[in-house]
């Protein structure tokens, strides 16, 4: 809890809700007749509405990217290190919009919401949404906020996939795209990890085919296990080794299945903490969105052909020890953009933190993002003149 | 702009696709993009230079050239440029092949190790040359494959690489008749424009 807010914090923020009553037809064929999106904004939208930056969140992220909800919050938003006055995503220059995606569990319509047609909790009946659906709904939120064109759209991991989709689907609605620790599609290994995560949830006896809330229960064991697995893949071997090594709870082996190594305790804690803030159906749905994303499929796998539509300037960032979304995966996007003759810069950041590195304020990484957005801000001022 | 860059600028056609290997802070590309509508990318590994390029809006990719250029397709650039860097790579000969695979033409500049001052330094003092132009000691120099003007010509001949034009200039990047007559002795910087 901060006694006083840090000077470079966006301060106390209040989430807002946008209600949409125009039906949204999803990739799966189902239609949501109405839905709501919860979002936060930081900074001021200028008169031309040209200085907006959209933040796209990853698997377990939400709309609360920066600042505090109350002065008693233990932690600020999930990307507070990058968003704020004078930070890489500078709220003195930009109007930052961050939303919880459709299907989420933090205030936007999702599996924990009430289905207006049945007055029951959606649960397992909530349709599977895709990256394309998210981008479509984000564009509607932009319309609502009076933003025709974003100065930039920024996202890491699954968030980066949304940025990539924006550049293809709405090429004239963004000037710049920052795609961080992402990939043009999941690898087989990634899909495999996601399937293990889903199965661990589905096989929890408390899952009840996804309608656990009706039974007033939650598949905490399955969801916790899914998170433990995910967590291992977000860290590098080196980072885990440096943090825990073979540190033990006791002086000698206990020869039982209780917690002996500190890493076991850490993983159990991470798994359990996650079940208190996240919904199992949302987790499964987010992993499916990851699995399905493959924009090159519409051009027989030719990513460059698909990206030929893009008009924005791109920044791609990867991290050396990230093996979930390895640098080679970002480079697939870079190579396709070069082939398509697009304006792209790419930097591979030396970092020990694995995939999680995209959430850390690593100086080289923050400098690159800041340089990229400084250029975006400069172009805004020259265009006004 | 550095004067060797100014010289090769004259050789570069407008509206072409240019790849600059080891682009530094992007001086050449910035000039070409701004004045010749060139469509360019730079490769660089120095974080500071990368940031400078990103902030200037020059497309720059972090890529270690010693680890290969296989991500670039055959003949996908009109021109591949490498200024004052060839001597820093593990295998300049293989790199030259790669540059001519990716680009239809290449422009390469490098310090001529056959310059008379180097000869005197080595011949009379018996020590590796250190100068303002080449300020490193033998043990900390990034320049691991020095060559002379003639060495490079010879490599081109062996590889059947066409020399479209060349220039040989002094420290101030001026060309004089005596440099033109005996480039291997009098030029400090050699500039070659080559193709297959």
Automatic annotation (TrEMBL), chain A:
Pfam families: Abhydrolase_1 (PF00561). The keyword Ribosomal protein does not apply. Keywords: Acyltransferase, Amino-acid biosynthesis, Cytoplasm, Methionine biosynthesis, Transferase. SUPFAM superfamilies: alpha/beta-Hydrolases. The keyword Disulfide bond does not apply. The record marks 324 as: Important for acyl-CoA specificity. Substrate binds at residues 227, 356. Transmembrane segments: none annotated. Belongs to the AB hydrolase superfamily. MetX family. Homodimer. This is Homoserine O-succinyltransferase. It comes from Marinomonas spartinae. The lineage of its organism: Bacteria, Pseudomonadati, Pseudomonadota, Gammaproteobacteria, Oceanospirillales.
From TrEMBL, chain B:
GO terms for biological process: methylation. It comes from the Bacteria. The keyword Methyltransferase applies. GO terms for molecular function: demethylmenaquinone methyltransferase activity. Pfam families: MetW (PF07021). The keyword rRNA-binding does not apply. Keywords: Methyltransferase, Transferase, Ubiquinone. This is Ubiquinone/menaquinone biosynthesis C-methyltransferase UbiE. The lineage of its organism: Bacteria, Pseudomonadati, Pseudomonadota, Gammaproteobacteria, Oceanospirillales.
């Amino acid at each position: 809890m901060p006694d006083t807010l840090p000077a470079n914090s966006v301060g106390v923020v209040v989430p807002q809700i946008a209600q949409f009553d125009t039906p949204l037809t999803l990739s799966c064929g189902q239609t949501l007749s109405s839905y709501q999106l919860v979002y936060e904004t930081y900074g001021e939208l200028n008169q031309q509405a040209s200085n907006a930056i959209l933040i796209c969140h990853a698997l377990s992220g939400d709309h609360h990217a920066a600042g505090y909800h109350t002065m008693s919050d233990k932690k600020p938003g999930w990307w507070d290190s990058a968003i704020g006055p004078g930070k890489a995503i500078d709220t003195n220059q930009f109007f930052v919009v961050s939303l919880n995606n459709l299907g989420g569990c933090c205030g936007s319509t999702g599996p924990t919401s009430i289905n207006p047609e049945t007055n029951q909790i959606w649960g397992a009946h909530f349709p599977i949404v895709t990256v394309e659906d998210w981008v479509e709904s984000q564009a509607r939120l932009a319309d609502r906020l009076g933003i025709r064109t974003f100065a930039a759209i920024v996202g890491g991991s699954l968030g980066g996939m949304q940025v990539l989709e924006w550049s293809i689907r709405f090429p004239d609605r963004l000037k710049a795209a920052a795609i961080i620790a992402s990939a043009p599609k999941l690898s087989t290994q990634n899909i495999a990890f996601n399937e293990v995560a889903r199965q661990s949830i589905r096989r929890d006896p408390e899952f009840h085919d996804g309608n656990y809330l009706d039974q007033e229960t939650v598949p905490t064991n399955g969801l916790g296990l899914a998170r433990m697995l995910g967590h291992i893949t977000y860290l590098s071997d080196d980072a885990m080794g440096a943090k825990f090594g073979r540190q033990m709870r006791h002086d000698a082996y206990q020869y039982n299945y209780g917690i002996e190594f500190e890493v076991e305790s850490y993983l159990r804690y991470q798994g359990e903490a996650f079940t208190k803030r996240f919904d199992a159906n949302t987790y499964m749905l987010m992993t499916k969105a990851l699995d399905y994303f493959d924009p090159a499929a519409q051009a027989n796998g030719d990513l460059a052909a698909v990206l030929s539509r893009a008009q924005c300037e791109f920044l791609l960032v990867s991290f050396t020890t990230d093996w979930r979304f390895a640098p080679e995966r970002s480079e697939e996007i870079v190579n396709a953009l070069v082939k398509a003759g697009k304006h792209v810069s790419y930097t591979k950041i030396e970092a020990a933190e694995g995939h999680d590195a995209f959430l850390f304020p690593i100086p080289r990484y923050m400098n690159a993002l800041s340089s990229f957005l400084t250029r975006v801000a400069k172009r805004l001022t020259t265009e006004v003149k | 702009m550095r004067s060797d860059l100014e010289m090769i600028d004259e050789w570069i056609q407008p509206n072409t696709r240019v790849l600059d290997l080891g682009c530094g802070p992007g001086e050449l590309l910035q000039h070409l993009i701004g004045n010749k509508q060139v469509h360019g990318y730079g490769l660089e590994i120095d974080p500071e230079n990368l940031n400078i390029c990103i902030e200037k809006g020059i497309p720059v990719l972090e890529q270690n050239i010693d680890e290969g250029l296989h991500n670039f397709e055959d003949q996908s650039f009109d021109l591949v440029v490498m200024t004052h860097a060839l001597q820093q790579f593990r295998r300049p000969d293989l790199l030259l092949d790669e540059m001519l695979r990716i680009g239809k033409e290449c422009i390469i500049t490098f310090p001529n190790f056959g310059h008379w001052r180097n000869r005197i330094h080595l011949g009379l003092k018996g020590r590796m040359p250190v100068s303002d132009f080449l300020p490193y000691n033998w043990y900390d120099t990034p320049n691991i494959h020095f060559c002379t003007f003639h060495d490079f010509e010879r490599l081109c001949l062996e590889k059947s690489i066409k020399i479209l034009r060349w220039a040989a200039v002094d420290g101030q990047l001026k060309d004089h008749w005596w440099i033109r007559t005996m480039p291997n002795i009098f030029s400090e910087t050699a500039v070659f424009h080559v193709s297959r």
